[in-house]
Amino acid sequence: MNAPTVLYVPRDAAALSVGAEAVAGALAGEAARRGIPVRIVRTGSRGALWLEPMIEVATPGGRIAYGPVAPADVPGLFDAGLLQGGPHALRLGRAEDIPYLRDQERLTFARVGTIDPLDPADYAAHGGLAGLRRALDMAPAEIVEAIVASGLRGRGGAAFPAGIKWKTVLDAPGTQKYVVCNADEGDSGTFSDRMLVEGDPFCLIEGMAIAGLAVGATQGYVYLRSEYPHAWRTLNAAVARAYAEGILGADVLGSGRRFELEVRRGAGAYICGEETALLESLEGRRGQVRAKPPLPALSGLFGRPTVVNNLITLATVPFILAEGPQAYADFGMGRSRGTLPLQLAGNIRRGGLVEKAFGITLRELLYDIGGGSASGRPIRAVQVGGPLGAYLPESKFDLPLDYEAFAAGGGMLGHGGIVVFDDTVDMAEQARYAMEFCAVESCGKCTPCRIGSTRGVEVIDRLVAGEAPERQEELLRDLCDTMLHGSLCALGGMTPFPVLSALDFFPEDFARHAPRTVAA
């Protein structure tokens, strides 16, 4: 009997939202009707979201992709020789040759979309666990030094050097230490955490185990965003498999070393993306920001030394340990080493995830990779770094995506979310949205954030209504200065970025709504 042909169909949330489950069912049903043996492997998405559901078929010449596929397309695909990679209007060729995917530098996301995310053997066959095995043969200080040498910085937004944080926890006294993964991905236009968990969860598990070995922690927690039900199920299933395979538990890979891992789900508060509010929530209290010092690295979860890193930071660690720190540091520019998974969203023709080395410009990303706006109209503004990121005009599109260069140009990379707006956008409305978002999501602990954001909405409303506009703008800028310098955390402290950038780069939009005086 002939071996079944292998078909790959994504099962991450993005693909499911556009009918991937129905496509998988149609493929299985059509093969059964024709008496053709097939094996359907459910994967994560490769990130070319405008092509989803994108299916692939294993052929002697490699995996051939087709997309976007609807259930009604399936009979015609079989007639065209789908299982041999035959010609069809939906045929895309080899997935790695699609320009969108070919031109990326996939280090952290190398396996996403190519493996069964819940098969440890498939993970290991594609390089998984090599980093953990190497770490088990190293002293904790050697592991930390590898992270320092790689130049890896926190991918959650603050961009703090991961190795320095790890060294602080390693050197901190204490018999119990923790590793906490911040997977509370709440920024607008971001989805890399979700895609990684749904497409390669063992990568995160491996990274957290390595972090535990590095700092002397035996317990880890993943704090996952509540709005990610598919990621929740996938990650818990992967953790259970990791325990069964000896990747987690009292005897990690037969080494006699312990690392336990538990997944916790947040309740949907944006403020819990801030590390100390996250720790408060993990401890069973309301998510409110803690005053620092002490730093979580010295007194974090339950008052113990704690590594708190973003999911992408921890998922990048296995590559660094497996390939060596220099292999990672060879990518990037300046102090921004390695790659960043960038997420293209909003009014963009080819939206999705793009992993690129630091140094690519916004213009290259928006036009060469993203294909310009979905509407076909000129791109007027781009917000990078989530709802607290600045709105950047076309004159800033040649900024290289590098932490220092971007900051010098008035921007913030944050978690790599990029939301695109064409020339129909009203930037006064966007500024108001930023202030209102802060008012809704504030934990309420500090006055500049709690009260300042509410007053900010009122001032913007008066400004666009034309009520003494010069006075209102002066008041708004003064309020932003107070929030910037007086807020306890980045929520209130960075809300001025989108507001002031809208004022500075798009002043005409604030006068657009003002009533005009008609001469007698």
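Second entry:
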Amino acid sequence: MASFELPPIKDNPDGGWGPSPSNFPPDFKFKDIPYAPFSKADKLGRYADWNDLTGDNRQSAANAAGGARPTGTGRRREGQQTFGSGIANAFAVFQVEDEASFSLVDNRSSAPRRGGAGGFGRTRGGSRTAGAGNRGGQRGGRFGFQTGRGGGQRGGGRRGWRDWEKNTRTRESSVTISSSWHMLEEIEFHRLGKLRLEVDEPDDLESCGKIFPYDKTYDRITTKTERPLQPLDRIKYNTTTSDDPVIQQLASKDIATVYTTDVILSVLMCAPRSVYPWDIVIVRDGNKLFFDKRDGGPFDTVTVNENATDPPQDPPVPNPNNPNEKVVQPETPSINTTSSLSLEATYINQNFGFQAVIETPPPPPVEFEKPNPFYGPDEAEPLASCGYRYRVFDMSVSEEEDVKILVRTEVDAYIPGQGSAQNGQGSAQNGQGLATIRALNEFDSRAQGAGGAPDWRSKLDSQRGAVVATEMKNNNCKLSKWTVQSVLAGAEVLKIGYVSRANPRDNTRHVILSTASMRPMDFAGQLNISLANGWGIVRTVTDLCMKMPEGKYVLVKDPNRPVIRLYSVPMTAFTGEDEEDAEGDEEVHHESDN
């Protein structure tokens, strides 16, 4: 039978806990390990407490060192601290490279507690508000309406069905990236948001066109007195920068360094807010830069709910690289797809601007110094109410440099004065009382892509602030571009019409439900638009292009990432020559295959 002997017990003559250092043998392997003090009241409930080895132990040490009140998760009563908690834990675990992929799975119950961050807390007044939705309620309070319940739904709403699939949808680029293009620069949006440049008031060089007075009766339209939207045949030009004869004449005099239009410039200044793809063609000719748009590109249409959480989607397109892939196409094309809604919104914007002016005097129209530079004598249809103001902004940082930009801006009407028509006409000629006219459209509040918008017919008169707040969220980029265009043109008023379908299933008939008046600078503050940031983006792109040699470049917004890229392209790009060359290459390729 084996014998059992008790191990020797080393008594500590100092009266402390643990063995005395004087009793350690010279070759004791644990001699240099520091000793962590502990309290007699501590209980050993686990062999290893992961919380004590990570964040909770550091929180306890911080509370003990700073005198803060212990959190509710601690085991001790308030005012009683753990013995030795202020001493650094020598046995704390620190992750190294081979443990970087390790993560602890919390197996505790995930049921929300009453009053917690994930649940509802009852206020003193008895109403229930979502903790995650307080930001939405505070943001909506600026418009003078209560959004305790609605704001909670926007801020802390549940995820819907198949939300995991929405992030996997990809968009196509606005322009086909050719293999012959060379990428020169890539800039993330978060870098653009840090740019700043203060620009003074512009100088007016030329003014062309003719504008009519705004019809003030549209300000009194309500949902009960709706007015049908009428299609009108008017001509309104959206000519690119290089084809503008006035810009060509001013560029020959070396008026500025950069030449563009307000439509193109507003997209660049609001680039960090954009979601859909776009592209700007940049031509450097000597010491001049021309920012152009492509015919049929994204600058000729209006987006719908671009910034919504779940924006409208186009039907899937078959992949040409995978002929075996089956794509189920709907039997009837939907009227609520991205492309259909964009065309509908463009139609509404044009016709609302044509309809909301008075073309038969009194009051009389305002004719600027020069006639419309794009209207020829052979045109049969009448011109739309539109005035062009060519303005120069100084983007110079110091007095030694001279960097100016010439912008062709547009105004749609003027606000007739309270006095006689002659006084109102004279003030409009001096740049006072000018207005830009735009329109928001409602398609179907229950359709996919509506972005949680309320029904306008039931909410527009009683809760206009809720409608405005939703549109500012879903169409933030579009409203920002309209506001920047109004500021660049020097307009005093921005008129925004609310146009809805007469029937949600019919996208050909529309009615005007209301019209709102905005001061561009005040509305820019509500949208949190920083013009200094926009000018900083323009100056950065200008400096980047001026470092390149003469040629043609394309600034492309990535369709699926918040990134813009600058490409160097051949001079024949986006012209008839490159299309013929591409067709010729295809014919040669087919002949070689045969």
